[in-house]
Specification:
Blueprint lengths: L1 H17 L1 E13 L7 E13 L4 E14 L4 E19 L2 E16 L4 E18 L2 E7 L1 E7 L3 E7 L5 E8 L1
Antiparallel strand pairs: 1-2, 1-10, 2-3, 3-4, 4-5, 5-6, 6-7, 6-8, 7-10, 8-9
Length: 174
């Protein structure tokens, strides 16, 4: 019995020695002003905490908040989201590493005039991270392939890869 416990402790400590905790996330702000229309403002923050299992695999949890809409019309909504994901780092080229994130998320949209809606998504996002120092990385994600649903409103399945779906973030490794 002592040999089994000792073997399990050695295996766990070697796993922890090669693992690394990191924090990251993104911050966004934008104003969309169509000709002849009212402007829409968006603010978003999405902190992330992750754990590197080895040089190829990470697991992480993102918690997000966004405020979107037209202030002048009183047509605003708040969005809350929680999204666990796994990251596979598949190619390294100098200081750049290419990856793909795969995961799912649950959220809630609260409308200013009352009412709310549940959201769900599942999909993958490709990206690249650039090592600025041994403890700091800049990451960028572009596009989304998957399924998104707002209960009782609409759903989307497919590929979205345009400039509006670009996400930049910073990661700090411990």
């Amino acid at each position: 019995m002592k040999k089994i416990i000792l073997t399990a402790l050695v295996a766990a400590s070697s796993l922890c020695a090669s693992a690394q905790v990191w924090i990251g996330g993104g911050l966004g702000f934008g104003v969309k002003s169509p000709k002849g229309g009212d402007s829409n403002t968006t603010f978003a923050i999405s902190p992330t905490i992750g754990y590197s299992l080895d040089e190829n695999w990470d697991i992480a949890l993102e918690v997000g908040y966004a405020n979107m809409g037209d202030v002048a019309k009183g047509d605003q909504k708040d969005a809350f989201r929680i999204a666990p994901f796994a990251r596979y780092n598949f190619a390294k080229c100098g200081i750049a590493t290419f990856f793909i994130d795969g995961g799912f998320g649950f959220g809630k949209l609260n409308y200013e005039g009352g009412g709310d809606t549940q959201t769900f998504n599942i999909g993958v996002r490709p990206g690249v991270k650039v090592e600025l120092s041994p403890k700091v990385e800049l990451d960028a994600k572009l596009g989304y392939l998957g399924y998104y649903n707002e209960k009782d409103d609409h759903s989307f399945f497919g590929l979205n890869a345009n400039g509006e779906d670009l996400s930049l973030g910073l990661t700090l490794k411990f």
